[in-house]
Amino acid sequence: MQNEKILTEVGTNEWQVVVFLLGEQYFAINVDKTREILRWPGSRDVPQTHKAMKGITTIRGEVIPLIDLREYLDIKPGVELESSKLIVAEFNKMKLGFMVDGVDRIYRINSDELDASLTGTFLGENSLYVIKREGRNILLLDYERIVQVVNPALADQFKLEKDISSDISQSLGNPNDYKILVAEDSPLIRKLIQGALAQGGFHNFEMVGHGKAAWDRLVEDGDEFDILLTDIEMPKMDGLTLTRRVKEDANLSRIPVIVFSSVMADDIKRKAQSIGADAQITKPEMHKLLETIVQLLGKHDRKKAS
């Protein structure tokens, strides 16, 4: 699969997805979350876990937890267990395997193709978008949410160990003097970020669901933001395209941009850096996120400069 990856220019709103099959329905996962695709390697049971947790396996010396997406989504398997495929994924600083019926191909898509109109209604909370290709409705799942449901301990990693608002106040004065814009498409992650910002003493923030909404807010007259926090994988405009536009705009380039993504491999970090991102942080490093926000606000304080 690695050889089939299509190179995309940074900040062009294009990315790639691996399309796979569960039962009779097609689904997709971002190529940047995918490490390799294997035949069913067998597994060892882990007691007292979620029904979709099918145990663990060892791949190249690493122990990998296995999640059966068919079991999680209540989809009848289209193949026998031994004929299943395993998508080895890596995000949120963890590696795991998703069990699927089969893998179809890689599509190159534009963020405009992500249709979120059915999210949270007909698709439920596990599906974020529909991609329409060649007469198919391909569902893009909220993999971070799925993993946190199967492994609730992961959600705790998004929480801060203690109240650090007093430490931040000492560095910045009143954190609410600074206005933060957050672009994040996952409702679950937005909620976790909101909680972490509030715990850090930041309450003057605005959250939007995609890069285009963030861009529209940034260029509106009469409102100024002090820092931008953005995911990468979003509809309408992805985070790298948003970052590139901000840094190329004479009126906005002063705004520090933090790319906060579940996928932060070396090539993604280089892409973010090449278009001017001030920092790149991997979810769920919330403490590092807040430390970086404080550092960048102190360095780029427009209030002190004015």
**Rg, alpha carbons:** 20 Å
User: H/E series, N to C?
Assistant: EEEEEHEEEEEHHHEHEHEHEHEHH
Unreliable stretches (pLDDT < 50, length at least 5) are 1-8
What's the domain count?
A: 2
Task: Note the topology.
Elements: E1 14-22, E2 25-30, E3 34-39, E4 53-59, E5 62-68, H1 69-72, E6 85-91, E7 94-100, E8 102-110, E9 127-133, E10 136-141, H2 143-150, H3 153-156, H4 165-172, E11 180-183, H5 187-199, E12 205-208, H6 211-219, E13 227-230, H7 239-248, E14 257-261, H8 266-274, E15 279-282, H9 286-299, H10 302-305
Parallel strand pairs: 2-10, 5-7, 11-12, 11-13, 13-14, 14-15
Antiparallel strand pairs: 1-2, 1-8, 3-6, 4-5, 6-7, 9-10
Helix pairs in contact: 6-7
Features of the shown structure:
globular; Rossmann fold; alpha/beta; 30% strand; OB fold (Dihydrolipoamide Acetyltransferase, E2P); 10 helices; 2 domains; 306 residues; five-stranded mixed sheet
